[in-house]
Write a structure and sequence with these properties.
7-stranded mixed beta sheet, Aspartate Aminotransferase, domain 1, single chain
Length: about 375
């Protein structure tokens, strides 16, 4: 199978991830905060080390790292918490995932918030003059931006957007599910209040471990409650971080895998991984552009992209095309990719696209299989 669905989860992972997860969990698989014996202490040391490595990767050693099972849960905790704190006017990019838009839709339907879309041109350029006008007209309380679109791969200029948003006193949230560990971004800037990461994607860790980094000065209510192994007599959630937002049992095996993945990234550097993925994206584009029945969506000169390319296949629906590629031994993601708002903006709603996504491990054999499948589609059109 030629794997072109890395935007869903990178595969394979570095060998050290599999090895360290197995080794650590066999020898040190105790829970965090549930005792003072040796197994707990060794686990706590590993978890603390992983937090430090996440903060170093994102250049934010002064901010708090909070682990969650998924980026969706992380986004829910932040968005619901900020809205419950009184945020009303919410601005989002046109490229948000359902993990953002479904939460906002719920509050919009209940009349608690008003949603606005940041101004972006048809060639995927953020129009800062218009955005200033938008903010002047309706002051933002919360600004949410998908750093990397999971549909077309566009990398949004979050640092510039958040710097502007802060002039209006907004809380800022970057969804870095497709970029953490791949696109070098200074989350340590004061303009970043929250940034969400997905360990199983561009950080090359296992599934089930994600989270967020946050400005520790921000106070927001909890929306999920439970045991933390800390201050158990208190029926309120603790005020301390990260315990306030890490309820229940942490995914210790997942954190161990993420720890190994972060060490693997550190040995190579984010810049090296970025260059490698850009080479693979260019190779992917070269192959796709060699077939006139393939229409690439949302790819413009002057824009920055992660290793994601979305296409329409002439004469074949996106859902049908997904099955055809699968039969030929190519794994892709077809449809709306959990981001209907992005497809409305790109003009591909409701049919969606066929999405190809590469990683550091995509190789020439994968590209060869993909080319063969495209040749077979061409010969049978």
């Amino acid at each position: 199978m030629a794997y072109f669905d890395n935007a869903a989860t990178t595969f394979p992972k570095p060998d050290c991830v599999y090895q360290y997860m197995d080794e650590f969990y066999r020898k040190n698989g105790a829970n965090v905060g549930r005792g003072r014996y040796g197994l707990v202490q060794s686990t706590e040391i590993m978890v603390k080390d992983t937090r430090t490595r996440v903060a170093d990767l994102l250049h934010c050693p002064a901010k708090q790292v909070v682990f969650e099972p998924t980026a969706t849960i992380a986004l829910n905790i932040i968005i619901q918490g900020i809205i419950e704190s009184g945020a009303v006017n919410i601005y989002i990019s046109p490229f948000e995932h359902n993990a953002v838009t479904r939460v906002l839709h719920h509050y919009d339907e209940s009349g608690k918030i008003k949603m606005y879309q940041l101004s972006v041109s048809t060639e995927l350029q953020y129009d800062f003059q218009r955005i200033r006008y938008q903010f002047d007209s309706i002051r933002p309380d919360l600004v949410i931006v998908s750093h990397g679109s999971n549909v077309c791969g566009l990398v949004s200029p979050v640092e510039e957007i958040f710097a502007l948003a802060k002039r209006y006193g907004a809380v800022t949230l970057a969804d870095m599910a497709q970029t953490a560990g791949l696109v070098d971004c200074n989350v340590g800037l004061e303009s970043f209040d929250f940034a969400v990461f997905a360990g199983h994607k561009t950080m090359y860790g296992p599934t089930g471990i994600s989270g967020f980094v946050m400005n520790s000065d921000i106070k927001m209510p909890t929306v999920i409650f439970g045991g933390t192994g800390y201050d158990s007599a208190n029926q309120d959630m603790p005020e301390s971080l990260p315990e306030r937002y890490e309820m229940g049992t942490l995914n210790i095996a997942g954190i161990a895998g993420l720890n190994a993945a972060l060490r693997w990234i550190e040995e190579r550097s984010v810049d090296w991984l970025w260059e490698r993925e850009q080479e693979n994206r260019e190779r992917l584009l070269e192959i796709l552009q060699g077939f006139d029945f393939v229409k690439i969506v949302g790819n413009y000169e002057g824009c920055k992209y992660v290793g994601i390319v979305s296409c329409l296949i002439e004469g074949i629906s996106s859902d049908s095309a997904g099955g055809i590629f699968s039969q030929g031994g190519v794994a892709v993601r077809a449809g709306l990719q959990c981001a209907p708002l992005a497809h409305r903006f790109l003009g591909t709603y409701p049919v969606g696209t066929v999405r190809f996504s590469v990683s550091n491990f995509t190789c020439e054999d994968d590209f060869g299989i993909l080319k063969n499948v495209l040749e077979n589609i061409r010969d049978n059109l």
